[in-house]
Specification:
Layout: E1 26-35, E2 38-48, E3 53-57, H1 64-72, E4 79-84, E5 87-90, E6 103-106, H2 118-123, H3 131-144, H4 160-172, E7 178-182, H5 190-207, E8 210-215, H6 218-224, E9 227-232, E10 235-240, H7 242-247, H8 252-258, E11 261-267, E12 272-275, E13 278-281, E14 290-296, E15 300-304, E16 309-318, E17 322-329, E18 336-341, E19 351-356, E20 361-365
Parallel strand pairs: 3-8, 3-9, 6-7, 7-8
Antiparallel strand pairs: 1-2, 1-4, 4-5, 9-10, 11-14, 12-13, 14-20, 15-19, 16-17, 16-19, 17-18
Helix pairs in contact: 3-4, 4-5
Bound molecules: adenosine-5'-triphosphate.
Adenosine-5'-triphosphate (ATP) is lined by residues 35, 38, 40, 58, 60-66.
Length: 387
C-alpha cells in the first residue's frame, strides 16, 4: 500500500512515547450480575494492584465480558461492589457513571467509527480538550503505534493489525487509570498476534495503566499477564503468576489449561492411588473415591528398554520441532502421551522404557470435564512447548 501523507492541518507530535497515567487499584468484591435465570457473575472477587497487568482466562460464557462491562460502568452489578482506588464505583451505596471512572475499554472488534478519519477516531475520547489539543494528543498516540501516515484516512483501508493499533491508540490517549481489553488479539493471525502482543504490552507498561485483559488462550495469558485470573461459571477459580498456576493448579480445570496432561481415572485404595509408576497420596479423598492421576506429557522420560517401566511405541505425531508419542505402557489401560524432540522419535513398535518425575504428578478428585471451549491447544502446542 502507498505511503500516505500525514494530515497537514495537525501540528507535529511531541514525542514517540505514550503519556504516562496514574495507575489505580481495581477491586471486585463479591460481584454478582444476574440476567433472569442466568448468573453471569456469581460472587467474583479479585484485587488488581496499580499498574498490574492481569489476564482473565475462562471458557466461553463464564462471564468475562460481563465483568469488564461492570468494571467500565456499562453494566450495573446485581450485588457486590467494584472499587477503584478503594472508592466504590458500583455497589449498594454508589454508582459512578462510565465517563467519570477514568477507565478505558477496548473491544474485540476494535469498534472504530467508519465515518471518522483515523485521527478523529483516536481523538474521539478527548472531547474535554480544545480541538487542537485533542488532535495533537491523538497524533502523538498515532505516532506511538507507528500509524501517523494514515491520520487523514478512514478505517476501512486499514488491515486488521493496523485497526488493532488504532483502537489501542484511541484507548490509551485519554490516559485511563484502568484499561479493560476484551480479547484484543483474537481476530488476528498468529504471527501478527505475537508481534502486536509485544507492542501492546510495552505500550501498556509505558502508560502504567492497570490492565485487565480477557483472553481464551492460556499461552497469551502467560505471555502478557503479570498474573492470570482463571474464571469459571461467574467465579474466580484461581489467580496467581503463570508459574504458580502451572505448578500448583487449584483443580483439574486449571491443570488442563496450563499443561498437556495424561489423565488416568483411578480409585483410592488403602489410602492412596496405586499405579505402575508409584503410590500417590490423596489428601482429602476417602477410600473408594474416584480420582484423576495427572501425568504431564513432558514429565515422561523415555529410555532404552530395560531401564524403567516397559512400554511400546504405538504412534508418533509430528508437531514441528516436537512430536507426540503414544506409548502402550505396562500396567496402564490406555496409552500414555509424551513429547519428544522431532529428531529423537523412535520407530513405531520400538520397545522403550518410561520414567516419570513423581514431583510433576498431580492428583485431583474426579469431576466433569470443564473448559473445553478454552483454546484446546492449551499452552502445550508445538509453538509453545519445549522439552
Ligand atoms: P465469551 O468468551 O463467549 O465472550 P464470556 O465469558 O465473555 O463469553 P459473557 O458474555 O460475560 O461471557 O456472558 C456470561 C453469561 O451471561 C452467558 O451465559 C450469557 O449468555 C449471559 N449474558 C450476557 N449478557 C446478557 C444479557 N444482556 N442478557 C442475558 N444474558 C446475558
Amino acid at each position: 500500500m502507498p505511503l500516505r501523507r500525514p494530515d497537514a492541518s495537525v501540528p507535529p507530535p511531541r514525542a514517540g512515547r505514550a503519556a504516562a497515567t496514574i495507575a489505580a487499584r481495581l477491586t471486585f468484591d463479591q460481584v454478582e450480575r444476574r440476567y433472569q435465570a442466568t448468573a453471569a457473575l456469581a460472587g467474583f472477587s479479585l484485587d488488581i494492584a496499580p499498574a498490574e497487568v492481569v489476564c482473565l482466562l475462562g471458557p466461553s460464557g463464564c462471564g468475562k465480558t460481563t465483568l469488564l462491562r461492570v468494571a467500565a460502568g456499562i453494566e450495573r452489578p446485581s450485588g457486590g461492589r467494584v472499587l477503584i482506588n478503594d472508592q466504590e464505583v458500583a455497589g449498594p451505596a454508589r454508582f459512578v457513571l462510565p465517563e467519570k471512572r477514568n477507565v478505558g475499554l477496548m473491544f474485540q472488534d476494535f469498534a472504530l467509527f467508519p465515518h471518522l478519519s483515523i485521527l478523529e477516531n483516536v481523538a474521539f475520547g478527548l472531547k474535554s480538550l480544545p480541538r487542537e489539543g485533542a488532535r495533537r494528543e491523538a497524533m502523538a498516540a498515532l505516532v506511538r503505534v507507528g500509524l501517523e501516515r494514515y491520520a487523514g484516512d478512514y478505517p476501512h483501508i486499514l488491515s486488521g493489525g493496523e485497526q488493532q493499533r488504532v483502537a489501542l491508540a484511541r484507548a490509551i490517549v485519554p490516559r485511563p487509570a484502568v484499561m479493560l481489553m476484551d480479547e484484543p488479539f483474537s481476530g488476528l493471525d498468529v504471527q501478527l498476534r505475537e508481534r502486536l502482543q509485544e507492542d501492546t504490552l510495552s505500550l501498556l507498561r509505558e502508560t502504567r495503566a492497570t490492565c485487565l485483559i480477557v483472553t481464551h488462550a492460556p499461552a497469551e495469558a502467560i505471555r502478557l499477564g503479570d498474573r492470570i485470573a482463571v474464571m469459571r461459571a461467574g467465579r474466580l477459580v484461581q489467580a496467581g503468576k503463570a508459574e504458580a498456576l502451572y505448578r500448583n493448579p487449584a483443580d483439574l480445570f486449571v491443570a488442563r489449561l496450563f499443561s498437556e496432561i495424561n489423565e488416568i481415572p483411578l480409585r483410592v485404595e488403602g489410602g492412596a492411588l496405586r499405579t505402575p509408576i508409584g503410590v500417590f497420596a490423596v489428601p482429602g479423598l476417602d477410600e473408594g473415591d474416584a480420582a484423576i492421576l495427572c501425568i504431564r506429557r513432558r514429565a515422561i522420560r523415555l529410555g532404552a528398554a530395560g531401564q524403567g517401566l516397559p512400554g511400546r511405541v504405538l504412534h508418533a505425531r509430528f508437531l514441528g520441532d516436537l512430536a507426540v508419542l503414544e506409548i502402550a505402557a505396562q500396567g496402564f489401560e490406555r496409552p500414555l502421551l509424551t513429547l519428544v524432540r522431532e529428531w529423537e522419535v523412535p520407530e513405531r513398535g520400538a520397545e522403550v522404557s518410561i520414567a516419570v518425575d513423581p514431583e510433576s504428578v498431580l492428583v485431583f478428585p474426579a469431576e466433569g470435564r470443564g473448559g473445553e471451549e478454552i483454546d484446546a491447544r492449551g499452552v502445550g502446542s508445538a509453538r509453545d512447548s519445549s522439552v
